[in-house]
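Please check this today:
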Amino acid sequence: MNYKDFEKAMIQPVMDIISDLAIYNYSISNQGEGCLYTMYKKYNCLIRIGFLDSTYNPDLLKEDSEWIVIETRTGREREEKLLKLTLEELGISPCNQKSDYAYSKRLVSYLNTLGWPAGNLSNMNI
């Protein structure tokens, strides 16, 4: 096979990849920023991690008196999804559909290592 034939055969797959990457980059850039948060429920030692869209006021998190807001920061929903997938791969599963996790020093260590806003969870008396 000569160079010209090889080049001709590769044009379509390369163009498909370029267009897929352009669509992917466009969808990533259009994701709005919001609020990443960590909350703690002392009653049953649960940690809730989540994302709040920028259209919502972060003060809404403080309205639930059972949960203590540990820390918040600006971020994207994609970060939350990646964190949850990573925790699953590390063997830590949520207790329910609301992203509540049982408190453990191992979980807090992973949250800190992965750059999640975990505040002073490791210093709490539990």
User: Anything to note?
Assistant: The longest strand covers residues 33-41. The mean pLDDT is 80.
